[in-house]
Design a protein that fits this description.
This protein is an alpha+beta fold. It is built from 8 helices and 7 strands, in the order H-H-H-H-H-E-H-E-E-H-E-E-H-E-E. It has 3 domains: about 120 residues, no CATH class; about 80 residues, Signal transduction histidine kinase, dimerisation/phosphotransfer (DHp) domain (Helix Hairpins, Orthogonal Bundle); about 150 residues, 2-Layer Sandwich (Heat Shock Protein 90). The strands form 2 sheets. A 5-stranded mixed β-sheet has the order 2-4-5-7-6, with helices on one face. The chain is elongated, with a radius of gyration of 42 Å.
Length: about 375
């Protein structure tokens, strides 16, 4: 529309300038002409004056009449040029705007196809989601077709890069599981030997703790890699049932830390992968317990439906969080203030796994600092 308006405006401007120049040139031509235009009745009067002898008054009147007729002819000619030229300009301008609209639509339709494809890829759920789509623009080999082909090549490289990254993480995690399992078996075997000294048993317990931590890290990486993919098979799940189960399993850890768990559960039926959804809720609750003030703290978990979304909201007490630091907690191995994860506080994979699971279910997640300290993390999944 803007291109058509610009084209039409320039056409009318050029036409108006051309009409104005024609008007000025015609006016100069008529004013410089000495021929004059005399009507038939004026010629008859001239013949009558000449046949009756010389009469200065009649001759003067005739000159005035001839001048008036010339002025009238000139004005009529210029007005006719201006009026008919404006009408012609308007008619031709409307036709030109219509043709310009068709031309702009034909020229810009491939660009609209490129824009629509880029928009669908940008809105796709899951990491790297939508990168398998291609523009595949057909037509003459012009600049727009070359642009679309270049865009397709970029999508192809990005798609391979994302797939390679996910496969690398998954394969590496799987390969690391075997040596860790062997290490655990050997340590347990050494600790259970009858002649094992107390120092060996103490060392074995430390090594088992380290081994268990590495196993949790690998499980988190595998979960993160698996949850990056968009969920294609869905089962009916009620978020309130999932939260009730997770809270029951986490109550012992909360009691040990001196943290009270509170729930406000309303039925929230959704559809998705039950294992991943349970892991989502488990990570939210574990994160709220781990990053708390300790004895006297609390965690509140609520479920509800809002519009077409099923919501799980987890609120906890804890350290004061700056609003600009909130987004970092959803990045792997990152925590508040850009700090790396430490052995005492986990690996920093909990909320990144939550974000990946939510994206895989075409949902949304957001965290808001709570006044006085702590966070309110809200996740929404499509309702059933």
């Amino acid at each position: 529309m803007r291109l058509t308006a610009l084209y039409g405006g320039l056409f009318f401007l050029a036409g108006a300038v051309l009409l104005g120049l024609t008007y000025v040139l015609m006016q100069q031509r008529l004013e410089s002409s000495t021929a004059g235009v005399v009507k038939s009745d004026a010629l008859g009067q001239l013949q009558h004056v000449l046949s009756g002898g010389f009469d200065p008054t009649a001759l003067a009147n005739l000159a005035i009449q001839l001048q008036q007729e010339q002025d009238s002819f000139r004005n009529a000619t210029l007005n006719s040029l201006l009026t008919q030229g404006s009408i012609a300009l308007g008619v031709v301008g409307v036709v030109a705007i219509g043709l310009g609209w068709l031309m702009a639509d034909r020229v810009l339709r491939p660009l609209q196809q490129i824009t629509d494809t880029a928009g669908r890829i940008a809105r796709a759920d899951g990491a790297g989601g939508g990168l398998h789509e291609r523009i595949a623009l057909t037509g003459p080999r012009d600049e727009i077709t070359k642009l679309a082909d270049t865009f397709d090549q970029m999508l192809e490289r990005l798609d391979r890069s994302f797939d390679g990254q996910r496969r690398f993480v998954a394969n590496t995690s799987h390969e690391l599981r075997t040596p860790l399992a062997i290490n655990r078996a050997l340590i347990e075997l050494a600790m259970t030997r009858p002649d094992a000294p107390p120092s060996t048993v103490a060392l074995g317990e430390s090594l088992l703790a380290i081994n268990a931590r590495h196993e949790r890290l690998i499980d988190g990486l595998l979960m993160l890699a698996d949850s990056e993919n968009l969920v294609t098979e869905h089962s009916d799940v009620d978020l309130s049932d999932v939260v009730d189960h997770v809270v029951a399993a986490s109550r012992a850890a909360a009691d040990e830390a001196g943290i009270s768990l509170r729930t406000a559960l309303v039925a929230a039926p959704t559809a998705g992968d039950p294992v991943l959804i349970e892991r989502l809720v488990q990570n939210l609750v574990d994160n709220a317990i781990r990053h708390n003030i300790g004895a006297g703290g609390w965690v509140e978990i609520a479920t509800r439906t809002v519009g077409g979304s099923c919501v799980v909201e987890v609120t906890n007490t804890g350290p004061v969080v700056a609003p600009y630091e909130v987004e970092t907690i959803f990045q792997p191995f990152r925590r508040l203030a850009g700090e790396r994860a430490s052995p005492e506080r986990g690996f920093g994979l909990g909320l990144s796994i939550v974000a990946a699971i939510v994206r895989g279910h075409a949902g949304h997640v957001a965290a808001v600092p709570r006044q006085g300290g702590g966070l309110r993390v809200t996740t929404g999944l499509p309702g059933r």
